[in-house]
Target: Phage-Barnase-EndoU-ColicinE5/D-RelE like nuclease 4 domain-containing protein
Amino acid sequence: MSIKDDLLLEAANKYHSLSGSKLIITLGKRGTTSEIVVDFKPSNFYHLAGLHKLKDIQVVRGHNTANVLNKILKGKLTNAMIEKSSFYNDMKERLKILSEFPDILKSNKLVWKFNKVRISRWTKIPWDYLIDYGIGDNETYVFLRAKGNSNHCFCISAFRKTKDYTRMQVRMTVLKVVLTNDTGDGKTIYQRKG
Model:
């Protein structure tokens, strides 16, 4: 089976390519700037990929979430194994989004800052920042959660836009995105013109 035939492996490889990296996103709003740092840890892949949704198959339940990414990369957990779940279609779109991940980070995107005062009653997603972007006809959300009161975040969810989660939120513009590797070397992957 090739990597293109195994959506789970493709998504895992793309996410793994970011492991140990950090995204430093400079945001602007009305002449002020702020910065958030997005970490990509192997333990975050499990939830981000939607594997927690597969409640009816034992192959992913009860495993240490930090080890799941490694099991996929070693071929011990495959797309064919999880396709047996009746919940597979609920999470398949997340795998497609993750397989686009390095590319979406380079697109022109907006970031919507979640304001705790404006909490939405129609979502249980505990997000602090929302990246709203489009590739072709697909508009997608990537939800970020801050670690405590710091500016360090991690991805908690990603899915195609079906509801407007940006309503009543504070809009910020991405000014610059720098991708750093585990040694701290950085490369600017997006710079807003103007």
In short: Helices lie at 7-16, 45-48, 65-73, 79-82, 88-99, 101-104. Strands lie at 22-29, 32-39, 110-113, 129-135, 138-146, 152-160, 170-180, 186-191. Residues 88-99 form the longest helix (12 residues). The first strand starts at residue 22 and ends at 29.
